[in-house]
Amino acid sequence: MLSADFVIATAVVYVGLLFVLAYFGDRRAREQKSSFLHSPAVYTLSISVYCTSWTFYGAVGNAARSGLEFLTIYLGPTIVFVGWYFVLRRLVRISHLQRITSVADLLSSRFGKSSRLAVLVTCIAVIGIAPYIALQLKAVTSSIQAVAGASEFGQGSLAGIDDVGLALGVAAAMALFTILFGTRHVDAKEQHHGVVAAIAFEAVVKLAALLAVGIFVVFIGGGFEAIFSNAAERGFRLDTENTFNDRWVTTLVLSIAAIVCLPRQFQVTVVENSNENHLRVAGWAFPAYMMLMSIFILPIALYGLTTMPAGANPDMFALTLPMAAGQSGLALLAFIGGFSSATSMIILESIALSIMVSNHIVMPIVLRFTSGGRDGQGVSHLLLVARRFSIVLILSLGFFYFFFTRDSDALAPIGLISFTAIAQFFPAVLAALFWRDASLKAATAAIATGFVIWVWSSFLPSFASVSPQVAQLMQQGPWGISWLRPEALFGLDGFDPLTHAVLWSLSINILILVVGSLLATQSTLERIQANVFVDVFRRGNIAPRNVMRGAATANDLYFVAERVLGERRAAALFETAAREAGVMPAALDPSPEFIGRLERELAGSIGAASAHVMLSKVVSGVEVSLEEVMQMADETQQVIEYSQQLEKTSAELRSTARQLEDANAQLRVLDTQKDDFLSQVSHEVRTPMTSIRSFSEILLDQGALDDQQRQRFVSTIHQESLRLTRLLDEILDLSALERGERTWENVPIDAEAALERALTVCGALLSQRGMRVEFGGRARPTMVEGDSDRLCQVFINVISNAVKYNDAEHPLLHVTSAVRAGSYVVEIADNGPGIAKAERKLIFEKFSRGQRGAADQSGAGLGLAISRQIVARMNGSLDLMAGPLPGACFRVRLAVLR
Amino acid sequence: MPTWLGPCGACWVIMAERRKLEAAMLVLTALGTLLLVPPLVYIFSQPLTHFGVPQVVVYLFAWWAIIIAATAALTHWMPRDPDGVERD
Question: CA A620, CA A783: separation in Å to the nearest integer?
Fold first, then answer.
């Protein structure tokens, strides 16, 4: 048989073993980055700190008392880990990027680095966890008492020590262990590899112990079937009909919230996580661990109920069953397993809480009162002292809670009180991760209100058994107001107390968070942080730009960094930055990026809010105000606009350059055209001049000519000079038209009359050629803007061209005029040879004459060019088109005057 | 481990695959939750025993085993985060 002294000695040796493990784990982790300690297996096992003595002892007791309800505590976390991809992965990513150190830090960082929120969350966590720590103390105390009570060696050294004294001893020992374990030095990232290694080892021990007890019980009970049927015979049936009630859902919700928000779970799952991909393993392995832990709970509970005496404490079945069967070794293993689960929880929970207390309460106070004074005392030393005191404080609170509620017997309900308190963070945490508009004021109010309701409806009633005042309060309500009774708020009577407390606290919490966020406005820093959190996967690894700026010298910053991070880390940080900037460390000019990086590093040690406050004191610009941010945004906007303007200007320049190029090309073409024109003119002038000269020379040579000949030569000279005059007239006319010198008033004229006049003028020419005129439709008298004589000139020109070039046997002219779509259109077509495709573009050019057609081509080739100019001056057009006859067809189009 | 060098055809397929797996995980989580709470849980909570164990106990542990296996499978197929952050 076991003696109490032996068991206590074993426990002390076991803790010593843990300490050695933690010590070497720390050294190993520091020496090798890729050691076994950084594996997903150790990560998963460390998360199993969730299974405390509540699981080891309490779950059996809970199963014996209320059947399957104990399972929800493990089913809830299973759901969270099955959905690891959605919440935990996001949480881990954000915490890595922002160097988050605790759940208080997470909320404070998200809601504008608010110190006040961090303090609130820390206080609630410390108070809310007290019952949970009391649960562990109670479990350890009960297990030692169970061994001592059954021992044939009597109480041993425990003689005369009651539960309270024992619990005090346990609490003191635990405080000592935790201080030795967790506060030997301040890690820059709040990671405790050695402790995690010890926790992982404990996870294996407690699983092995519970499995061993379970297998043993199933073995001596004759198998699952026998245990269940024997229990059923004795009247211990699972009440499956009333299992799935509101309480089932409530505990499920609580455990879902707890696995995320419990300080120690946040510590192991998020802060101690060294690689995001470890979650991939933990996603299925941690649920598997919990399933293994739960498999034998029911058989142990049922077998205990069947075989143990009626008054036996069902919470201790895992320990008392092997003892009753005389299996001392197994009983010792069970005791160590239960002790393991309690110590791991207490160590980690108080480390996590002490980090919160020192970072969010002690640091801000110190920062406020030292006002940046250069006392040279390292902040890390101060942090260590603060953490040691916090650990003592946290365990004291746990002990006091145990002291005041020592008469309550069951373990599980105590744990659920803590879960309800911690669950108050859950809505805000979810909002922090997913809801951009969640605001600081709303979150603070929501958490505070939830906490107040929890104190009233869950925490206070747990003292009912020791305090008559509380019992009376619960019966009648404060000042006799019955609708304020803690377990029947607002007249909601007859509910299970836990469901009642959770329903009211969480629903009002959520309501305030949602409505408050919709009403409140966010500060600038809040909005920035909200986007950083919600868009964490969209941004990738881009750290947010620091909003601090100002004239901090590297020296000032180094002083701050040294105080918090210690000399080595600070020096390394600054040397790296200097190397990157390519300057000497002394000449480092702290850029906003560097200040941002420094702030995140500091946040890793003292929390986001404290780091922000600390740097704000050194960086003289303090924090940028809203106006400054707006101005910065304005400047950015201006830069954007300026660059857009530049782009526009350069586009304009490009187009101008293109236009200039075009103009240049045109000029070159015009130059060539001018040369062509000159040579054409010379050529045109030269032909008549040659004949005039030669004929006049003949005439000068007197005597050889008779009068008739002389007469012919003189008339030729006359004709040629007329032709020359006409040519020069045309050239002058055209150039005047082109230069816009020859202007006339565009007045309303009857275009149809001008056409009629032109046909009359050309009548002689037409009949001389024997050309028949055919009319298509004729328009009624139509008014257009222009000059009647000039328009007539155009028509004459076109008609005479049609006559001149027509070599058909039965020459035909087809004239149509009409008003179409607001335009007066005249089409003059002939059945001549038409205009070759290659010439079509050229015929409106100067001196261009058709190659085909009749030989008599007396014109200089300026007619169409002049006509086109005239029509253009009347805002109309003269085009060549496909006509009704095989030959050419010219169309004159003029806008009808209305 | 695919290479995430840019918008290549294979990556697109992987991205689409990733979205499907994400959806599958969401469905698994939601369905898993629904199967644990009333009214669905009542379907499996008949007053029967299998091998002497009440049906609902068998059901809950079967749920557990299946959801663990399904999560392991989905996680196995899910490509690793290309930009996973390490912290050590």
Answer: 83
